[in-house]
Amino acid sequence: MTARTLTTAAELAGRYDLVVVGAGPAGLSAATEAARGGAQVLLLDENPTPGGQIYRAITRREPGPDDCLGPDYWAGRTLTDAFAASILDYAPGATVWGLEPGCALSTPTVGVSLGGAARRLPARSVILATGAMERPMPVPGWTLPGVMTAGAAQIALKTGGLVPRGRVVLAGSGPLLYLLAWQLVQAGATIVAFLDTTDARQRRAALRHAPDFLRSPYLTKGLALLVKVRRRVRVHSGVTALSIAGDERTKRITFRQGARARSIDADCVLLHQGVIPSINLASAAGCKIVWNEAQRAFQPHTDSCGRTTAPGLYVAGDGAGIGGALHAAVAGRIAAIVALESLSLLSAEERDRALEPLLREQALYRRGRAFLDTLYQPSRAFRAPQDPETIICRCEEVRAGALREAIALGPPGPNQLKTFLRCGMGPCQGRLCAQTVSEIMADERGVSPCEIGTYRLRTPVKPLRLSELAALPTPPDAVFAVTGEHPVGAEH
Fold this sequence. Notes:
InterPro entries: BFD-like_2Fe2S-bd_dom, BFD-like_2Fe2S-bd_dom_sf, FAD/NAD-bd_sf, FAD/NAD-binding_dom, Metab_Enz_Cyan_OpOx_G3PDH, Opine_Oxase_asu/HCN_bsu. Keywords: Oxidoreductase. It is built from 19 helices and 22 strands. Strands 1, 2, 3, 4, 5, 6, 7 and 20 form an eight-stranded mixed β-sheet that branches. It has a five-stranded parallel β-sheet with strand order 9-16-10-11-12. α1 (25-36) packs parallel to α3, α1 runs parallel beside α10 (325-342) and α6 (200-206) runs antiparallel to α12. It starts with a strand and ends in a 9-residue tail after the last helix.
């Protein structure tokens, strides 16, 4: 048997035991594990093929002598092959725009668009495996053509084998930026500079976590990657300021090291300063959202098995806190096993036996995480830009200076700040500015973002056509709320 691929909303079943959102390592392993345990499973994913960002387009490619992606990428085939052989439903190209949590009298409901039609789909349990997104890195000129995030460049490389032309500059910090640098070197890109913004003070702070990192599975790979990149690319360490200039597109990048400012001609600039959990669906579902000080990011509150504060809703992988691809795959299996027990497809004893080795494996992949989180924590200068002309909200073109002026007027949090500037109300619904807005507001008031909070989201969390919305069946409780009458034939 193989996974059944669905292309239209009409093909969806009326109800599922488990709906998994996201086909990265966490989602693939969760769906495979749950299907193996006898659950009726649906996996929903926006992308046309499984793999998520880390294994993007892996089922469409074959390794060759000129491969630039490396063995860690191709290791994802184990997950995609097991998933493809599972008995479950798989809906690529699906947009999940809403999630209503369960309660004592009802189960979660997923709002999804597929093939041009929308559905509200009941499920006994839901696992969110929506992964991570890149932390925004607003610097002067970051909206110019020719400036991209490292993740966007990786998408182009993995999906279409596209390599940026001309003089390429990578700027920022974090392991992903070094990985991309090596992949682009292998693919033939001309990288003229790597501007490393890692804060020297963070290097010293990370030393106390070094013993744990020395026992982690990432040590050898990480050191080898650093050595390879530094042999082939000129790395400028200790960069404290960046600005990008150009008329109609990127022409040069200026950076500061200590008291010295320098400029480099560039045709393409790739920015990156780590990744943060993607929390929009969990937030819209009413899950408790908490601040992770070590990772400088908001994330859903979960226990060690992925349970959230909303009944029947789990979060697995980087969407619950950044841990990497291997950690995410294990976390997906853990969440699926706990969900199977809640669905009465496993006994408590079977659940505990299955979880024991997986929890040990999960702890192994988390070993050394504190070292990486501390070392690559972005500096204040890039988390909360001081230059008043720097655009923070790209959708509404709100600049840092306007934000700080509005914050001085006293709005209690980011949600109230929206009424002043519409910041976070554009098509991306705050995905590209929420983190920075919270950081700037915290910076202005001298507190932690934990005290500021982040945007509260509500359905729909993704754009939804009015024709799809209008075609949805009207639930009886909605009719009663408007008319005060129960529809004929509805239970009440």
